């Protein structure tokens, strides 16, 4: 039985005070939740303050990115997985399409970041997904297959078991155009099949595959009824504690 995960990606929003206020409001709204894991990913600058506020709660902390080199070193401007563990993160988002698109992150760099995160004991949330152009060209599965295979290359099955995959069609992110539950289900089933081919059915059956792309309180329920959708990575609608809490209470 896969425990669903509802994760909020705050992107480059919220100063420290607002971030702390958001979790202060969110905590009581979700305090009784046991049916899913709840994760928030504030910007780096707010991680420590938010971590203090989350102590003893049922909300887990994630970062939005990580350096491909673990530990310490001469990497000006970067933050290592060890540092993310130190600040209280359990998860880290890796390979978000905004990083691939605006910062030139390649499949190869994404794979190295996954390695660094695993080495430090973090659970990577690995983002994959095709652009509108790629979907219209009939290439959606080819692109996602390439991204999944690159992300998993050389990993042991036990390492893959620690990953979460987020299928985020780029055309659905921040656009208000969510994938239909059927479109998302088809791709999630395909991803699970690919993972099974790479590391075996057992790990694939246990792997949580989240959907991301304009998830809202109004559309989460239909998405969550699909058998291979194990949760959501939520951008815009996670910024408001009430709408995020409604998504968490998706049933
Ligand atoms: C995201 O940033 O991962 C995302 C899915 O954003 P939104 O929910 O705003 O589309």
List keywords for this structure.
251 residues, alpha/beta, TIM Barrel, binds phosphoenolpyruvate
Can you summarize this structure?
By secondary structure, this protein is an alpha/beta fold. It has helices spanning 16-30, 47-54, 81-87, 97-102, 107-119, 132-136, 140-152, 157-160, 181-199, 201-206, 220-224, 241-248, and strands at 5-9, 37-41, 59-63, 91-94, 123-128, 164-167, 208-212, 231-234.
Count of domains: 1
Order the strands across the largest sheet as they lie in space.
Answer: 1-2-3-4-5-6-7-8
Number of helices: 12
**What is the arithmetic mean of pLDDT?**
97
| Structural class category | alpha/beta
Structure summary, number of beta strands:
8
Strand content: 15-25%
Bound molecules: phosphoenolpyruvate
Cα-atom radius of gyration: 17 Å
What is the H level of CATH, i.e. the homologous superfamily?
Answer: Aldolase class I
Characterize the largest beta sheet: strand count, sense, and whether it forms a barrel.
Answer: 8 strands, parallel, barrel
CATH topology: TIM Barrel
The N- to C-terminal Cα distance equals 17 Å
Q: Give the overall shape.
A: globular
Q: Strand-and-helix sequence, N→C? A: EHEHEHEHHEHHHEHHEHEH
Provide the CATH top-level class: Alpha Beta
Q: What's the CATH architecture?
A: Alpha-Beta Barrel
Please specify the SSE layout and strand pairing:
Layout: E1 5-9, H1 16-30, E2 37-41, H2 47-54, E3 59-63, H3 81-87, E4 91-94, H4 97-102, H5 107-119, E5 123-128, H6 132-136, H7 140-152, H8 157-160, E6 164-167, H9 181-199, H10 201-206, E7 208-212, H11 220-224, E8 231-234, H12 241-248
Parallel strand pairs: 1-2, 1-8, 2-3, 3-4, 4-5, 5-6, 6-7, 7-8
Helix pairs in contact: 1-2, 1-12, 5-7, 7-9
Bound molecules: phosphoenolpyruvate.
Phosphoenolpyruvate is lined by residues 9, 11, 168, 173-174, 212-215, 233-237.
């Amino acid at each position: 039985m896969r425990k669903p995960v509802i994760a909020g990606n705050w992107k480059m929003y919220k100063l420290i005070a607002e971030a702390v206020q958001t979790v202060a409001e969110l905590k009581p709204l979700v305090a009784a939740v046991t049916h899913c894991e709840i994760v928030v990913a504030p910007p780096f600058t707010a991680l420590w303050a938010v971590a203090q506020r989350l102590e003893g709660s049922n909300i887990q902390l994630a970062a939005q990115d990580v350096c491909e080199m673990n530990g310490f070193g001469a990497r000006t401007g970067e933050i290592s997985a060890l540092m993310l563990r130190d600040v209280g993160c359990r998860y880290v988002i890796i390979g978000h399409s905004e990083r691939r698109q605006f910062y030139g992150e390649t499949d190869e760099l994404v794979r190295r970041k996954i390695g660094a995160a695993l080495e430090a004991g973090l659970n990577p949330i690995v983002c994959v997904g095709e652009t509108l152009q790629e979907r219209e060209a009939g290439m959606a599965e080819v692109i996602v297959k390439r991204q999944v295979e690159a992300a998993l290359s050389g990993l042991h099955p036990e390492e893959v078991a620690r990953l979460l995959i987020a299928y985020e069609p780029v055309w659905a992110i921040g656009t208000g155009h969510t994938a239909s539950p059927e479109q998302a289900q088809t791709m999630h089933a395909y991803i699970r099949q690919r993972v099974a081919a790479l590391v075996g059915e057992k790990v694939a059956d246990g792997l949580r595959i989240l959907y991301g792309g304009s998830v809202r309180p109004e559309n989460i329920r239909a998405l969550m009824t699909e058998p291979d959708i194990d949760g959501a990575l939520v951008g815009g609608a996670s910024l408001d504690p009430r709408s995020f809490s409604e998504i968490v209470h998706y049933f």
